[in-house]
Write a structure and sequence with these properties.
By secondary structure, the protein is α/β, with parallel strands linked by helices. The protein contains 12 helices and 12 strands. It folds into 3 domains: about 45 residues, 434 Repressor (Amino-terminal Domain) (Orthogonal Bundle); about 130 residues, Response regulator (Rossmann fold, 3-Layer(aba) Sandwich), CATH 3.40.50.2300; about 130 residues, Response regulator (Rossmann fold, 3-Layer(aba) Sandwich), CATH 3.40.50. β3, α7 and β4 form a beta-alpha-beta unit.
Length: about 325
């Protein structure tokens, strides 16, 4: 026999509390004592009661749902970021809904419409380059949004992230300080990402006199990195260092160099960008730039919930990245 699912009135009867109190607990209200909250949650578990999201939205005009639109799920840096957002939201009774834009403005706009229809109260967006129609949609409906993975102190839109220009400039300066003067740079499609464009500009700024940079644009994947690394070898045999704007592209370069019997770092140094979980486990361990993906996810989730719950304005926040030096970059000065 199938067990009957409990209703809110069953929880009220079991605990001796009012339906209004049960509702406050299930909606995450703060004005409930810990003892009362414990009673309600225990009874809800025993009775197999879960609140109806649609009913809650109708009664409170709040869905406690935040949306994130990201370009792809194929890059694991997004996995860390999304996991941090979801965990932080769940701690305060919020839910995350998500869509993939494939870096296409039309897909992003269509996804935003669907997510609004699902009751999304706020949006997390990757980068700061979005269609005017999308921003107009949010502003007309007074739906809050935050740009992430970028930092622009002069922007009128809220942004929480890191300075891609400065990080890429620092990477090239790091390689130059190790004696590398001929550096190949592998990056993803410039047309798809303002973060990639900022990194390219930063790399150029970090080059300086006596440093030659050669850029290779490819898809953001292991296969793309492998293909571009092969081109770099064929086109410029004396290149001493390879900087990849993504760890996944750096992994492709590892494969390409292994097949060509090119040793890292003896014959060529390799540097990545992201500090993905596996980067310290490849051989040699990858020197890379740590991006604060988890910290960024927690920060954007907390700030949006503070805004929705208490009206606290979103505060622009710059997060710091850092070079993680391992074994894949050789000091050619010594």
């Amino acid at each position: 026999m199938v067990r009957k699912v409990g209703k809110i009135r069953d929880v009220a009867r079991e605990t001796g509390l009012s339906i209004a109190t049960i509702s406050r607990v299930m909606n995450g209200a703060q004005n409930v004592s810990p003892k009362t909250r414990e009673r309600v949650l225990l009874a809800s578990k025993q009775l197999d009661y879960l609140p109806n999201p649609a009913a809650r939205t109708l009664s409170t005009n709040k869905s406690k749902t935040i949306a994130a639109i990201i370009p792809t799920i194929e890059n694991s840096v997004y996995a860390k970021y999304i996991a941090a957002i979801e965990q932080t939201l769940a701690e305060r009774g919020y839910s995350l809904v998500m869509a993939i834009s494939n870096a296409d403005p039309d897909q992003e706009f269509a996804a935003a419409g669907k997510l609004l229809g699902m009751g999304a109260e706020a949006f997390i967006l990757s980068g700061a380059a979005h269609s005017k129609d999308l921003i107009d949609l949010f502003e007309r409906r007074e739906v809050p949004f935050v740009f992430t993975s970028v930092w622009d102190p002069d922007s009128r839109k809220p942004n929480i992230g890191y300075d891609n220009f400065a990080l890429a400039r620092g990477a090239v300066e790091f390689l130059a300080a190790k004696g590398h003067r001929d550096i190949a740079v592998i990056h993803g499609p410039l047309c798809e990402s303002d973060r990639t464009r900022a990194r390219r500009e930063g790399a150029l700024a970090g080059g300086g006199a006596g440093t030659r940079l050669e850029f290779y644009e490819t898809e953001l994947s292991v296969a793309g990195g492998k293909q571009a690394a092969r081109k770099a070898l064929d086109a410029h045999k004396v290149c001493s260092a390879l900087l990849c704007f993504s760890d996944v592209q750096a992994l492709g370069a590892y494969f390409a160099f292994s097949e060509a019997n090119v040793r890292i770092p003896d014959d060529i140094s390799v540097m990545g960008f992201d500090n993905l979980d596996w980067s310290e486990h490849v051989s040699p361990a990858l020197t890379t730039i740590n991006l604060p993906a988890r910290k960024m996810g927690r920060a954007v989730a907390d700030q949006l919930m503070d805004l929705l719950d208490d009206g606290i304005p979103i505060r622009p926040l710059q997060l710091e990245g850092a070079i993680i030096e391992r074994g894949s970059v050789r000091n050619v000065n010594s």
